[in-house]
Structures are given as structure tokens and as C-alpha cells.
Amino acid sequence: VLPSNSKVLLPKCFHPLFDTPSSPILDFYPQKFDIDMDGVKVPWGGVTLIPFINQQRLLDGMAQGERGGPPLSEQEQRRNNFGDAHSYRYHFGSKLEVASPMPHRYGALKKCPVSECVFTHPPLPAGVKHFNNDVLPGFKPNSWGFPTLHVHPLSAEFDTGIKVFQFESKGRSLVIRLSPEGPVVPQEAILRQLLEASYVRINFPFAHWGEVVTVHTSARKYFRGGQSAPNNPRDHENLVRQLSQDQRQRGLVLDFDAAGGGDAA
């Protein structure tokens, strides 16, 4: 929803709808409103508590604005219709010129090494009415950007509860389920090798690079430099549970019992 101060971005016939007392949708654009900052860490992350938009009222208000004029230009009418999708690719030999939508402020982009063409989707197979938004039959997930995920049995499903920008997504997302067969207790030599590695993949599913500084098992903690110390099994259990919950919100389900002992965190 655009605030009234941004009405200049729309055709002039719609400007009175934002702040004129006679506007049939004036209540859509309150001058004062509350902002919900619950669970937000940055000032711009709050949720503005404004009225929900009634689609039919909005369309009726737009129709009234068009009747009141000034009329929409040919370009504005064309912009309100569905057009073709276009594909843009880098092309060294192209000299594409892109006209500025705000020529009074920004000039056109000239000699852009970009090629443009109308994009069309390949035709669907016979008998298929729409694209199937699901894992296709025969699909075998392997590493998903993490080289060691395929060590244990994997499966995929659609589920809710994935966090996106600090909030749980209301829609379903693809979730990978990792099912180790029994407790995961690497040999100490493998743990040392992990601690000596220059970097590893972390922060699934983003595949960032990081350095391992500590590896926890139910019995000991292993540090860089060959050092180790005893570990509290209860603290280890709580840590594994917390890490499992964090990974679940990222789309990775770890199927093992944190209280079963032996799972390296």
C-alpha cells in the first residue's frame, strides 16, 4: 500500500483517492497508525497496522478516479495490461539502449551489452494442465550444496514452520529429512581432521564457509590444537536439541533422539 506522500508515482487521476475527503477509499490511507514491533530487531522491520484492503472497493474507487480524469495516457493504459515476459542476457556485442522512466531525473542507459528477447515457457506434456509444484517421481536428493548430507538416508517433503526473515512462513516449503542409522559418533581421528580443516560448509541451506573451533560429543569436547575436556551429558543433550530446532527452522530435519547419547553436535 502506497502512502499518500507517494501518490505522485501513480497517474494523476488517482491522486484524489489518497487524501481528498470525498474519496470512497480514504480510510485505506490513514495519516496515523500503529506499528507492531514485537520480535523485531530493526526499526524498519515493524508491521504497519493499517486496514485490510477490500478489493472491490479499491477497484470501484479506481474506476471513479478514471472517470474524474485526467484520462490515462496510452502508455499508462498499456502498462495496466498483461504483456509478454522478456529474457535479458549479457551479450558483449549488443548495444541496447534503455529509455529512462524518469527522464527529468535520470538519463537513458546507452550501449548496454545486453540482449533482449520474448520469453516463453516450453509446452507442457500432453495431458498436463499446469506445472506440478512437487518433487518429481524418481528424484534423488544428493548433497544440496553440502558435501556430507548424502552420507545418511535422505527424504524430502513439503511442510510449514520454516523461518524466512526472522518470521515463520505461513506457506509450505521444501524440507529435507536426514535420518542417521543410530548415534553419529565419528572416530577421534575424524574429529581432529574436522578441527584442522581450513573451512567447512555451514548455515544450511545457504552454504556459507566457516571454521570449526569445537566439536561436542556426549563424553568430551574437542578443541583446535589437540586439546579436549570432559563434557556434561545433560548439557550435550540440551545443545543437540537446540541445534535440531534451529536446523528445522532452516528446512533440515534431523531424525535422531538427542537423549540416545553419542550424537556429535
Give an overview of the whole structure:
This protein has 265 residues and is α+β, with helices and mostly antiparallel strands. The protein is 19% helix and 23% strand. The protein has 5 helices and 16 strands. Strands 7-10-16 form a 3-stranded mixed β-sheet. Strand 13 and strand 14 form a beta hairpin. The radius of gyration is 28 Å and the shape is elongated. The protein starts with 15 loop residues before the first helix and ends in an 11-residue tail after the last strand. The mean pLDDT is 84.
Chain-wise SSE layout:
Elements: H1 16-19, E1 34-36, E2 47-49, H2 55-68, H3 74-79, E3 85-90, E4 96-98, E5 109-112, E6 114-119, E7 154-159, E8 163-164, E9 167-168, E10 173-178, H4 188-196, E11 200-202, E12 208-210, E13 214-216, E14 220-223, E15 228-230, H5 233-250, E16 252-254
Parallel strand pairs: 10-16
Antiparallel strand pairs: 1-2, 3-6, 4-5, 7-10, 8-9, 11-12, 13-14, 14-15
